[in-house]
């Protein structure tokens, strides 16, 4: 390797001192595990420059072991506190292995790293982001050469390398030195991305729409993207929260209530036809109708599937996670479309999309990927697809937005959905998880809102259970892979049934 050993003081530090990871007086190295969507931790606690460099070292070793150094690695980062400096620290470690990098010239949506990996035929991608986690956190995501989230096999390899190198020294090559040697490229993906999506989305048609659109990127790295993509036409776009704010206005940057309540109130004032939402790194999407009514991610999944089969005439398979809507199966039966179910996380969705040639994949958290586009979540592309859907519905006479959604439920069946996150202290969480995984089958509810439970399904990832009633409604209790909390989800035919199911599920969890 060609580099100097890095001190742990901060981004860009390059001295002859070692990282300190192997010193006897140093604390025990953090055990780094990639959950459903990368590794995340609290900044300045476990999320440190030392640990980011450990992750980068493992990715570099993975690429070197495959003999793919010449293909390079793409690096991107979001708008969180110090993300650009963590990205620079990761870049210097990669460069010490003589691996060229392309690093974003500014904060960009996470999916732009996927796009750049595919366009450049890169060996991997690294994104510094904690997605929708609290503002106190940051994270480290890895992309595979397909642009999809790194799958279990790739992540297992990287995790093993992180653990094996915990006590070792990490070298780094200063960015300025590597840039002078031609190993660093700064990229802005906007123009290339615009051309990339053009064959699958008629941007001129969207720009010409006589509509008022509200966009809320929640201060994240998706800010300005949708207004810029739709600029120059008849459509009127208003964007909230465009400025950088690492505090995210005091809410988690996840596009669900109450985090998006300001956007919902603004729409409810009466002058907008549609609201489109993004999470903190813009790989997840959200939506509201013209009344300011929030549209759930399960409804969005069904709307997108309906759009692809009804308005685009596609019949390829779809992929959904275990916490996604049962409307998918009903639409699949109606249109002759195969539905595949996988565990929670796009590290399962993306590979399954590639394996099956799926036209779409999605998860409950609002992430959707498309076979015509990328096998990875893209909130911006998803929001534009939703806009196109409602233009198609408007042309068919189903307008306003709420009427088009009502039409979906006429053919896909009713769906009311909600999720509750039950938070626990990190110190008790591991023991609670172990105990609940044993006790949950014995504590299974006998009924869901008065309907008998006919099946209990343990999740294949051993992180929860799903309970099914005889009418197709379900309750899911699952441990988060990124935060110390238990998620309780349910889908049923009415809000009253949803409330009853959530109460039952929350009581089971809190009773532990």
Summarize the structure.
This protein has helices at residues 49-65, 83-95, 111-120, 152-164, 175-180, 190-197, 203-207, 225-229, 261-268, 297-311, 327-335, 346-356, 379-395, 401-412, 429-439, 495-511; strands at residues 4-5, 39-42, 73-77, 101-104, 124-128, 137-143, 171-172, 184-187, 212-216, 236-239, 274-278, 285-288, 294-295, 318-321, 339-342, 360-362, 368-370, 416-423, 447-448, 451-458, 464-469, 474-479, 485-492. It is α/β, with parallel strands linked by helices and 512 residues long. The relative contact order is 0.10.
Please describe the topology of this protein.
Elements: E1 4-5, E2 39-42, H1 49-65, E3 73-77, H2 83-95, E4 101-104, H3 111-120, E5 124-128, E6 137-143, H4 152-164, E7 171-172, H5 175-180, E8 184-187, H6 190-197, H7 203-207, E9 212-216, H8 225-229, E10 236-239, H9 261-268, E11 274-278, E12 285-288, E13 294-295, H10 297-311, E14 318-321, H11 327-335, E15 339-342, H12 346-356, E16 360-362, E17 368-370, H13 379-395, H14 401-412, E18 416-423, H15 429-439, E19 447-448, E20 451-458, E21 464-469, E22 474-479, E23 485-492, H16 495-511
Parallel strand pairs: 3-4, 3-5, 4-8, 9-10, 9-11, 14-15, 14-16
Antiparallel strand pairs: 1-7, 2-6, 5-6, 11-12, 12-13, 16-17, 18-23, 19-20, 20-21, 21-22, 22-23
Helix pairs in contact: 1-2, 1-4, 10-11, 10-13
């Amino acid at each position: 390797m060609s580099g100097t050993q890095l001190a742990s003081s901060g981004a860009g530090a390059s001295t002859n001192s070692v990282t300190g990871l192997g010193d006897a007086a140093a604390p025990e190295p953090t055990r780094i595990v990639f959950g459903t969507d990368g590794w995340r931790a609290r900044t300045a606690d476990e999320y440190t420059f030392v640990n980011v460099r450990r992750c980068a070292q493992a990715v570099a070793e993975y690429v070197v072991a495959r003999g793919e150094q010449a293909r390079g690695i793409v690096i991107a980062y979001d708008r969180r506190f110090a993300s650009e400096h963590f990205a620079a620290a990761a870049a210097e470690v990669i460069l010490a292995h003589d691996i060229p990098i392309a690093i974003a010239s500014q904060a960009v949506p996470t999916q732009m790293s996927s796009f750049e990996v595919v366009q450049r035929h890169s060996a991997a991608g690294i994104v510094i982001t904690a997605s929708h986690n609290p503002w106190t956190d940051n994270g480290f995501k890895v992309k595979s050469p397909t642009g999809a989230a790194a799958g279990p096999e790739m992540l297992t390899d990287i995790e093993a390398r992180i653990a094996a190198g915990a006590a070792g020294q990490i070298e780094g090559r200063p960015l300025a030195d590597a840039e002078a040697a031609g190993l660093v490229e700064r990229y802005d993906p906007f123009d290339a991305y615009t051309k990339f999506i053009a064959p699958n989305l008629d941007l001129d048609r969207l720009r010409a729409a006589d509509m008022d659109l509200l966009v809320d990127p929640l201060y994240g790295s998706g800010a300005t993207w949708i207004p810029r993509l739709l600029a120059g036409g008849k459509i009127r776009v208003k964007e909230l929260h465009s400025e950088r704010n690492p505090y995210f206005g005091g809410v988690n940057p996840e596009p669900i209530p109450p985090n998006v309540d300001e956007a919902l109130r603004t729409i409810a004032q009466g002058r907008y036809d549609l609201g489109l939402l993004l999470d903190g790194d813009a790989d997840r999407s959200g939506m509201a109708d013209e009344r300011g009514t929030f549209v759930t991610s399960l409804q969005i999944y069904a709307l997108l599937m309906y759009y692809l089969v009804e308005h685009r005439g596609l019949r390829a398979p779809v992929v959904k996670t275990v916490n996604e809507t049962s409307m998918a199966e009903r639409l699949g039966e109606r249109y002759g479309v195969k539905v595949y179910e996988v565990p929670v996380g796009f590290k399962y969705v993306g590979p399954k999309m590639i394996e099956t040639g799926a036209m779409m994949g999605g998860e409950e958290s609002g992430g959707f990927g498309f076979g015509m586009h990328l096998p990875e979540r893209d909130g911006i592309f998803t929001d534009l697809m939703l806009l196109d859907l409602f233009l198609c519905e408007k042309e068919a006479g189903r307008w306003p937005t709420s009427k088009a959604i009502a039409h979906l439920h006429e053919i896909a069946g009713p769906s009311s959905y909600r999720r509750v996150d039950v938070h626990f202290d990190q110190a008790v969480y591991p023991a609670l998880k172990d105990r609940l995984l044993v006790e949950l089958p014995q504590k299974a509810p006998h009924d869901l809102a008065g309907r008998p439970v006919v099946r209990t399904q343990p999740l294949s990832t051993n992180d929860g259970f799903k309970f099914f009633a005889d009418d197709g409604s379900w309750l899911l209790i699952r441990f988060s892979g990124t935060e110390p909390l238990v998620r309780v989800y349910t889908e049923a035919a009415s809000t009253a049934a949803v409330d009853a199911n959530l109460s039952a599920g929350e009581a089971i969890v809190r009773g532990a």
